[in-house]
Amino acid sequence: MPAQKFLDPGSSPAALWGSELRHYRQAAGLSQPELAQKIFCSRQLVGAMETGERSPEPDRAGLCDEALQTGGALRRLLEKLQRSFRGRRSNGPDRRHVAKEQPKQQQRRGLR
Questions:
Q1: I need a labelling partner for 38 at 20 to 30 A (CA). Which of 3, 50, 58, 88 fits?
Q2: What does the DSSP 8-state code read for residue 10?
Q3: Residue percentage of the chain with pLDDT more than 90
Q4: CB contact at 8 A, 75 and 58
């Protein structure tokens, strides 16, 4: 069994959700392959969701809730994180957009 990858729940909304998924999966006594079978996906997808490399779809979060008997906690958390993230993006610049624009601005400065 490979060592578990370190989780930094504060690094992104997906990582926070993933850390909760891992918590509930371990509390239920399930391995990643066992959970994957219950939610109709691969073990790799479960691992990617737990580490925040992939964000779950709302339906997948609901399947996780059912399989892990969380009472809907994972789906609710996903919805709250999505609303929070959308709210932050609308209140400030999209940093990905700014990062893409910087090289263009630098090029323009060089042309002047």
A1: 3
A2: T
A3: 67
A4: yes
